[in-house]
Design a protein that fits this description.
Largest sheet: none
Distance between the termini: 26 Å
Number of strands: 0
Shape: globular
Structural class: mainly alpha
Radius of gyration: 20 Å
């Protein structure tokens, strides 16, 4: 059966990830404006304390964490359209309200809503891509990151345009609200491919539980470590760059996004030629560790630009999507549920490590940005060690997992 009729659906779903890309990083660029809006204390140097903004950014991870346990089963039971529409609705609420509220509490709640949007979209888009593109499902899932990276590449230019035109910083938020509303309306009418529905147990029998080998558990933990590496960089490099003398750190993000885009095409080519994804899960995080160490040792403004590119390529260039795809392939009858489990680990990273980053910012003072990067290095090293173990036993565990599930 031709799947071409579902390509417009795939495009609409990729567009939701474009909006997700903006949502995941826009608050980090407007820390000072949002801190002032939400009543943060002013520091001795005339800037606002941004630890509260980091807490709201961390709330996105909490929203995802709350959502995944039931979003995955909803997707496997009722179809991919339902969670996609819920995700669009949540983003509409977030973008329409977060830059207008003057309440830190409400901002935190809206951060949770944005995280819920991310969670619902993940359990719709990942399974849908693998069902639409089938044999190329893993590559198609990696390219969800392309939508995110395009958004994050364009965002600094949009921020620059808004500033040059003397428009309010809320402009980008409003544009995204309109865009997600249009995409959501399209998803209502677009066709979705057939999927293997998770059936209820018949005759009162207990539903068979998913069985996990050590490799599956490692993949879940890698959902945490790989997310930590790029989330901390994306949301916390700005202060470190400023401390090194960079006036406009948003330019680093453009190089970061270029690195992501290039990595996606390189990864797709490598996978098409038969390279095992588990090998990438060692090499890429290892290079990320070297990059972070170089940033801490060199302490010059120029180092941030190549570091931004390298972190985009090796930390954010589809590594989490590779982890998810491999894990999902182990559980063909529970794709959305397995997506949820890996993304729960990613959400814990989002919430926990950014909360820790906020704490390190508060207690570390001028050394806060460096302490955050040291923390990032430690978590990423753990991920590299786990990936080495995964490679040692992957083939045996993958065969056993797919048979059992």
């Amino acid at each position: 059966m031709s799947m071409k009729k579902y390509y417009p659906t795939a495009f609409a779903l990729y567009m939701t990830y474009f909006v997700l890309g903006v949502a995941s990083s826009i608050m980090s660029h407007y820390k000072q404006e949002l801190a002032a809006l939400w009543g943060s204390a002013m520091l001795a140097d005339g800037t606002y304390d941004v630890s509260g903004v980091l807490a709201v950014i961390a709330a996105l991870g909490l929203g995802r964490l709350i959502t995944y346990p039931f979003a995955g089963p909803i997707s496997d039971r009722y179809g991919r359209r339902v969670p996609a529409l819920i995700g669009c609705a949540c983003y509409l609420v977030f973008f329409g309200a977060v830059c207008f509220t003057r309440s830190y509490v409400l901002a935190y709640i809206l951060g949770i809503v944005a995280g819920a949007a991310n969670g619902f979209l993940d359990v719709s888009i990942t399974p849908s891509c693998m069902e639409i593109f089938r044999e190329k499902g893993t590559i198609a899932n990696i390219f969800t990151k392309l939508s995110i990276s395009i958004a994050q590449f364009l965002l600094p230019f949009a921020i620059g345009y808004v500033a040059a035109a003397n428009l309010p910083f809320s402009t980008i938020f409003i544009v995204c609200a309109v865009l997600i509303a249009v995409v959501g309306a399209a998803i209502v009418f677009l066709p979705f491919p057939p999927y293997e529905r998770a059936a209820k147990a018949a005759g009162g029998k207990k539903k068979e539980r998913m069985k996990f080998t050590p490799s599956a558990v490692i993949l879940i933990v890698l959902g945490f470590t790989t997310s930590t590496t790029f989330m901390i960089w994306l949301n916390c490099y700005q202060e470190l760059a400023i401390s090194y003398g960079i006036a406009d750190p948003s330019r680093v993000q453009s190089l970061y996004s270029i690195g992501i885009v290039l990595a996606l095409f390189v990864n797709a080519a490598l996978l098409a030629r038969g390279l095992k994804p588990s090998k990438i899960l060692i090499i890429y995080p290892a290079v990320s560790v070297v990059t972070l160490v170089a940033v801490l040792l060199v302490q010059q403004p120029w180092i941030c630009y190549p570091a931004g590119f390298l972190m985009g390529f090796f930390a954010a260039g589809g590594v989490l999507q590779l982890v998810t795809s491999v894990a999902v392939e182990m559980f063909p009858k529970n794709r959305a549920v397995m997506t949820s489990i890996v993304m729960i680990a990613s959400s814990i990273a989002n919430y926990a490590v950014l909360s820790i980053a906020g704490l390190l910012t508060s207690i570390g003072g001028a050394d806060g940005p460096r302490l955050i990067m040291l923390f990032n290095i430690a978590v990423t090293v753990i991920g590299v060690a786990l990936a080495v173990v995964l490679n040692a036993r992957f083939d045996k565990d993958f065969q056993r997992e797919t048979v059992n599930n």
